[in-house]
């Protein structure tokens, strides 16, 4: 691979692979350290358009960090991450990468929807207010237009009747469904889920999984970090197992989850199943 040189000292060295992208999300040889600790080690992972990839692995293995590199909430020390052939935080000029200004990063980030474990809704906004905030701010959609689209999205997650409720008036499962509607509001190319059901009471998990199931069926490109192994087996086209910042194995759910090759995968599955 080409190793481009950099004008700007603060831009980390990385390989030049964006042009040969086949995946919608293309993670190539990504490494990342915090202090002296390497939390991602030469991670390569591709999500094809329309594919559902489940990322599993023990706590602290680097799953959230990896997700956060995709929308440039984290920078990488080496390697590259592109979405639809484009870096979120950088622009290529010749064989060099230049850091983009914040407003361009925000615009590019709209291609990626992300749903967190703890919903992260704006507490002072209603359900519909949460869903329309970004379209109004970033797309300059009119309030009427944004509200109509927002209601359609809330309907899609089964919450049309809760549009004017505040997060504190909603259950955890309902809040997470609002968060999914919000993540869909800018029509992202890919949706990232970071343990979307881990903070939920068990009886509320199903309603959130149902919504994600529907997205998978509709052909939405999904990257899902989850401990719901049965769900991963059902909806994922591919499963990747991450441990200590390394992808130890990946493949179809039937292989990785039912017949894992790596002893570490077997060990992990024996603990969570
Ligand atoms: P996972 O999501 O698989 O539980 P994380 O990506 O959250 O793992 O964390 C991977 C490792 O990186 C952990 O050891 C964690 O403590 C560490 N880590 C995560 N974020 C930071 C940070 N901002 N600063 C320092 N260490 C971090
Ligand atoms: Mg995590």
From TrEMBL:
Keyword annotations for this protein, in alphabetical order, are: Amino-acid transport, ATP-binding, Cell membrane, Membrane, Nucleotide-binding, Transport
Q: Where is this region: Disordered?
A: 1-15
Pfam families in the record? ABC_tran (PF00005)
Under the heading InterPro entries, the entry gives:
AAA+_ATPase, ABC_ATPase_HisP-typ, ABC_transporter-like_ATP-bd, ABC_transporter-like_CS, MetN_ABC_transporter-like, P-loop_NTPase
Q: What Gene3D superfamilies is this protein classified in? A: P-loop containing nucleotide triphosphate hydrolases
Coarsely, its chief localization is: membrane
Source organism's superkingdom? Answer: Bacteria
- Which first-to-last residue range defines the signal peptide? none
What Enzyme Commission number does this protein have? 7.4.2.1
Output the Gene Ontology cellular-component terms.
plasma membrane
MF-aspect GO terms: ATP binding; ATP hydrolysis activity; ATPase-coupled polar amino acid-transporter activity
Under catalytic activity, the entry for this protein gives: a polar amino acid(out) + ATP + H2O = a polar amino acid(in) + ADP + phosphate + H(+)
What residues does the ABC transporter domain cover?
25-269
Q: Where in the cell is it found?
A: Cell membrane
Enzymatic class: translocase
Family of this protein: Belongs to the ABC transporter superfamily.
Q: Which PANTHER family match?
A: AMINO ACID IMPORT ATP-BINDING PROTEIN (PTHR43166), GLUTAMATE_ASPARTATE IMPORT ATP-BINDING PROTEIN GLTL (PTHR43166:SF9)
Protein name per Swiss-Prot or TrEMBL: ABC-type polar-amino-acid transporter
């Amino acid at each position: 691979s080409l190793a481009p040189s950099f004008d700007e000292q603060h831009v980390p060295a990385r390989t030049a692979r964006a042009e040969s992208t086949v995946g919608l999300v293309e993670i190539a040889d990504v490494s990342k350290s915090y202090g002296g600790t390497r939390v991602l080690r030469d991670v390569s992972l591709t999500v094809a358009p329309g594919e559902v990839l489940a990322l599993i692995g023990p706590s602290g293995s680097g799953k959230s960090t990896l997700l956060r590199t995709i929308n440039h909430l984290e920078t990488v020390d080496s390697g590259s991450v592109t979405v639809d052939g484009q870096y979120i935080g950088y622009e290529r000029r010749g064989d060099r990468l230049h850091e983009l200004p914040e407003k361009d990063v925000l615009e590019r980030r709209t291609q990626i929807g992300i749903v967190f474990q703890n919903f992260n809704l704006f507490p002072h906004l209603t359900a519909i207010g949460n869903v329309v905030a970004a379209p109004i701010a970033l797309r300059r959609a009119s309030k009427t237009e944004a509200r109509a689209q927002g209601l359609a999205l809330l309907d899609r997650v089964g919450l049309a009747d809760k549009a004017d409720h505040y997060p504190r008036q909603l259950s955890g499962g309902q809040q997470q469904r609002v968060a999914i509607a919000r993540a869909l509001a800018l029509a992202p190319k890919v949706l990232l889920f970071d343990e979307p059901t881990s903070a939920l009471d068990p009886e509320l998990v199903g309603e959130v999984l149902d919504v994600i199931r529907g997205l998978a069926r509709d052909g939405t490109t999904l990257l899902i970090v989850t401990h719901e192994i049965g769900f991963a087996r059902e909806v994922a086209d591919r499963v990747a197992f991450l441990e200590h910042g390394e992808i130890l194995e990946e493949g179809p759910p039937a292989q990785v989850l039912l017949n894992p090759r790596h002893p570490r995968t077997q060990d992990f599955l024996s603990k969570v199943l």
